[in-house]
């Protein structure tokens, strides 16, 4: 049985290891992703140049690929980086932003899986439902899908790609195809700041770079984000101040806060 003790220990491992997380992410939230990684105890590198990514991946502890503002160089870079990660056994976190709205994204995702191996897929419920072959209700990069059927979609993808899959929403669903968790911590204020999902993907990279069990690592990263969001909302009731306090709350996280505050249903 998975426990909050095991999940909370991931935070200590991150701060002990200070994992180098190679991020190829969208340009809207690149600064927030870097800062939240630093606050979490990781070391961010926002390296996306095609001529550099192959070599940089092999010195990293994790690769985070976010398809949010995918330009042509990023497209070639993420494919090359994914190939390098497979060669050098570096864990990969894929954030399939807007895959349900923009068909080109699926072509890139398929290419990533052809040349590499993804360890964690982290998306919103609409993106995960779409990748699982279901109808998805989306508005651009945002999901309008509810929680119903989200865990089944995660399990379908986890088994298809032999990886951990997480669908974020009012509840968060995580599975590796055998073990599953539903996280019920949340605050709606996370939907009022740009890039909360991108920052969450970056945290998954930090956890995956420091902890061998990718299912537990993903649970830890998502629980960290949600508890930090709840903590931030206690002091910041508007989006601007909340965004700043969110990063502060990530920095102020402790194992005790995760253990005492975590609301997880294990399946």
TrEMBL record:
Pathway given in the UniProt record: Cofactor biosynthesis; thiamine diphosphate biosynthesis; 4-methyl-5-(2-phosphoethyl)-thiazole from 5-(2-hydroxyethyl)-4-methylthiazole: step 1/1
Keywords: ATP-binding, Kinase, Magnesium, Metal-binding, Nucleotide-binding, Thiamine biosynthesis, Transferase
Cited Gene3D superfamilies: 3.40.1190.20
Cofactor annotation: Mg(2+)
Pfam families, sorted: HK
Gene Ontology MF terms: hydroxyethylthiazole kinase activity
Binding-site residues for substrate, renumbered to this chain: 46, 195
Enzyme class: transferase
InterPro entries registered for this protein in UniProt: Hyethyz_kinase, Ribokinase-like
Binding site for ATP: 122, 168
Source organism superkingdom: Bacteria
Catalytic activity annotation: 5-(2-hydroxyethyl)-4-methylthiazole + ATP = 4-methyl-5-(2-phosphooxyethyl)-thiazole + ADP + H(+)
EC annotation from Swiss-Prot or TrEMBL: 2.7.1.50
SUPFAM superfamilies: Ribokinase-like (SSF53613)
Role: Catalyzes the phosphorylation of the hydroxyl group of 4-methyl-5-beta-hydroxyethylthiazole (THZ).
NCBIfam families for the chain: PRK09355.1, thiM
HAMAP family with a match to the protein in the record: Thz_kinase (MF_00228)
Family: Belongs to the Thz kinase family.
Protein name, UniProt field: Hydroxyethylthiazole kinase
